[in-house]
């Protein structure tokens, strides 16, 4: 069992000084409660406050095509920024340096290409899913194959989305991973099923605010505790790598690999993935869809950059005593929770805000996947 941070206990850590207290639990619980209430509100609003009838399929799955660019853009950001991103990116920078930070360049190039090439096509066709294009271009068998592959891919990704933040929660509270994972999944399914796309988008909107606030607070306090950004940069000089032009495919990160590979990945995800296309089509005009892509590109770039800088802060803190080597943590994904509890664990509510941000990221990605896969499955078997 684990509780707090400090010395290894059964492969985790324990600290008698800093522990997850009632304020932290309240902050985390408030995040789950607000998520559930958002779904309840939009579920009741669509059924009883307008016509007294159940919402149409179009309203449930695409918000009737009348959503606003900013909340949709925030939902796009939230759907990409998962708990894996928040916990994994700092660990990546901590262990292998800042070469990965060039992914921001790939994100910008991808955003431009998606807005100019792909968004106009889907907005003009007004298909229900991105895979309907394959039926129009080829045949129904190709569409079905692509749809099934998408569903399988998302289903296999779901356990990772929940496991990583559940592991972080376990490390600071001692609560069983499976218990907290089940609770979070139930809450997410509740508001996603009840409220449809509108609940997903608006929940994602305030969840991304919680996510960004949690990371920024940790970065600001962590930087301050070390004496400022200049000191962090100086202490982490051995991890600042941005010009590795080695063409070898065996290199972990190079300029070519990060920018070219990142562009291919981001374009495939942003351009044709159903989780993204569904939100593009929830907007009334092509220009608004392009605007949402622009806001999304800026938002993701900023968030990823903050996560990368967090990795430098962690390295500056533990540069002379690696927690993993010392046996204080079991995996690199536990670096950030350890840092949070040791650096700002004495500030009541801050650890709770951080965990709320990590789970907010998981919830936003999970809800989008549930909503999108249900739409794809529906149009495979019932249309």
UniProtKB/TrEMBL annotation:
* Localization per record: Cell membrane
- GO terms for CC? plasma membrane
Matching entries from InterPro entries are given as: Na/Glc_symporter_sf (IPR038377), Na/solute_symporter (IPR001734), Sodium:Solute_Symporter_SSF (IPR051163)
Task: Fetch the CDD domains from UniProt.
Answer: SLC5sbd_NIS-SMVT (cd11492)
GO molecular function of the protein, one example?
symporter activity
Q: What is its main location?
A: membrane
Bilayer-crossing regions: 22-42, 70-88, 100-123, 144-165, 177-197, 209-233, 253-272, 293-318, 353-381
Keywords (alphabetical) are: Cell membrane, Ion transport, Membrane, Sodium, Sodium transport, Transmembrane, Transmembrane helix, Transport
> Topology versus the membrane, per the UniProt entry?
Multi-pass membrane protein
Q: Which GO terms describe its biological process?
A: sodium ion transport
Similarity comment text for this entry? Belongs to the sodium:solute symporter (SSF) (TC 2.A.21) family.
Question: What name is this protein filed under?
Answer: Sodium:solute symporter family
Q: Which organism is it from?
A: Popillia japonica
């Amino acid at each position: 069992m684990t509780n707090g941070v400090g010395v290894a206990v059964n492969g985790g850590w324990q600290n008698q000084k800093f522990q997850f207290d009632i304020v932290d639990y309240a902050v985390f619980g408030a995040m789950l409660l607000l998520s559930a209430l958002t779904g309840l509100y939009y579920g009741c609003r669509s059924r009883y406050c307008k016509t007294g009838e159940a919402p149409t399929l179009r309203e449930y799955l695409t918000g009737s095509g009348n959503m606003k660019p900013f909340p949709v853009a925030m939902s796009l950001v939230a759907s990409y920024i998962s708990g894996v991103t928040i916990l994994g990116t700092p660990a990546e920078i901590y262990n292998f340096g800042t070469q990965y930070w060039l992914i921001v360049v790939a994100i910008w190039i991808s955003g431009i290409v998606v807005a100019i090439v792909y968004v106009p096509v889907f907005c003009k066709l007004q298909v229900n899913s991105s895979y309907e294009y394959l039926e129009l271009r080829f045949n129904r068998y190709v569409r079905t194959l692509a749809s099934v592959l998408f569903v399988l891919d998302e289903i296999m990704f779901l356990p990772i989305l929940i496991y990583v933040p559940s592991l972080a929660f376990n490390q600071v509270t001692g609560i069983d991973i499976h218990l907290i994972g089940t609770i979070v999944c139930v809450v997410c399914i509740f508001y996603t099923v009840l409220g449809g796309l509108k609940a997903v988008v608006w929940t994602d909107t305030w969840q991304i605010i919680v996510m960004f606030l949690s990371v920024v607070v940790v970065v600001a306090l962590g930087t301050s505790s070390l004496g400022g950004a200049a000191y962090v940069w100086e202490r982490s000089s051995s991890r600042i790598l941005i010009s590795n032009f080695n063409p070898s495919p065996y290199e972990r990160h190079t300029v070519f690999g990060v920018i070219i590979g990142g562009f291919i990945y981001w374009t495939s995800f942003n351009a044709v993935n159903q989780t993204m296309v569904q939100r593009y089509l929830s907007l009334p005009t092509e220009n608004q869809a392009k605007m949402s892509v622009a806001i999304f590109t800026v938002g993701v770039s900023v968030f990823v950059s903050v996560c990368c800088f967090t990795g430098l802060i962690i390295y500056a803190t533990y540069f002379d005593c690696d927690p993993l080597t010392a046996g204080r943590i079991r995996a690199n994904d536990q670096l950030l929770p350890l840092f949070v509890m040791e650096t700002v664990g004495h500030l009541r509510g801050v650890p709770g805000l951080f965990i709320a941000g990590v789970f907010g990221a998981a919830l936003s990605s999970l809800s989008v996947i549930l909503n999108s896969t249900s739409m794809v499955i529906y149009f495979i078997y019932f249309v």
